[in-house]
Amino acid sequence: MRRLIYSAIVLALPASLLADPLPSWSDSSAKQQIIAFVDKVTTPGTDGYVTPTDRVAVFDNDGTLWAEQPVYFQFIYAMDELAELAKEDPSVLTTPTLEAAANGDTSTVLEGGEDALLEVVSATHSGVSVDAFQTSVAEWLHTKRHPDTGLPYDQMTYQPMIELLRYLRDEGFTTYIVSGGGLHFMRVFADEAYGIPPNQVLGTYADSTYEIVDGTPTIIKAPAIAFVDDKEGKPINIERTIGKRPIMAVGNSDGDFAMLEWTTAGDGPRLGVLIHHTDAEREWAYDRDSHIGRLVDGLDKGPDMGWVIVDMAKDWSRVFTGSN
Predict the structure, then answer these.
(1) How far, in Å, are 51, 233, 253, 258, 312 from residue 69 at the CA level?
(2) Which one of 151, 170, 212, 291 is separated from 109 by 20 to 30 angstroms, measured CA to CA?
(3) How far apart are CA 40 and CA 117, in angstroms?
(4) Which has the closest alpha carbon to 54: 44, 41, 72?
(5) Which of 143, 94, 141, 147 is nearest to 122 (CA)?
């Protein structure tokens, strides 16, 4: 009988008291606030309790779940693809932007802003079937290494974030990716890397066509971008696709501001989290003046809105999944 009573007490305790759910996080205010929020919304009989069906958490990908420097990894893939295409047919390099990208000149392309990035992506992500594109991405991930760390790109995921995703799912949350990255690109690795299945990945997507190719029904990626899942597009896509307002949103840049703002404006317990890249030793330090992952409004307004600002250098004892 004593053992049964003890077991009942243990089962009633919050998970955070049984074991450390976030071992790669320093014992800081950021970690404590996240655990306190999860305990609050998962403890039955309290004012803050949220039913499992409403425990929706959304995460940006680039700079939030994996690294994004010196440029978005999908863009590095696009430049590699463009260089290969140009070897076979130099006429594909129809603009200075495409020439710069094929030559690996990322700084010139970045100076062109979002339009230049989309031009390179459009040139390399269209005219192929979704299956062929995703096979190409999988091969690239398998063979290529990051120029600075030497790690495979899919090992440059953040170990603290992998733990957070796992912790939330263990506590009855459904986790989604909501990213400006390409939908079909992220679906290649999201399940294996993060435990997030393809149907829970929201991203930027191009127009597509349905065609019969050699007798086989096929979805072909078209050049035109149909929807950019960034900034104000993120809450729009969440509402359109998921159908409910999340109770937790995590990002790292002003491209995520609207998603966090909309999430935390809802009724009941809410949590917004921003990953601030402050660790020049183990990763990169950047925010206000960065071409990639620019963070201004989040730093200036986030604290007054109750958001948790994670200081990567102080709040994480480990950074990459693929290294200590």
Answers:
(1) 38, 23, 13, 23, 15
(2) 151
(3) 42
(4) 41
(5) 94
The domain made up of 13-69+157-187+194-205+228-315 has a fold known as Rossmann fold (3.40.50)
Calculate the alpha carbon distances from 72 to 63, 68, 93, 275, 280 in Å: 9, 5, 21, 16, 18
Is the pLDDT at 99 greater than 90, yes or no? yes
- Return the SS3 of 271: strand
- Tens digits of per-residue pLDDT, 113-164? 878 888 898 889 999 999 999 999 999 999 999 999 999 999 999 999 999 9
**Which run of H or E residues covers position 18?**
helix 15-18
> Cα(75)–Cα(117) distance, rounded to whole angstroms?
7
3-state secondary structure of 228: coil
Q: State the Cα–Cα distance between residues 141 and 139, nearest whole angstrom.
A: 5
CA distances, 298 to each of 121, 160, 232, 260 (Å): 28, 21, 14, 9
> pTM here?
0.92
Each domain of the chain, given as residue ranges in start order, spans 13-69+157-187+194-205+228-315, 73-143
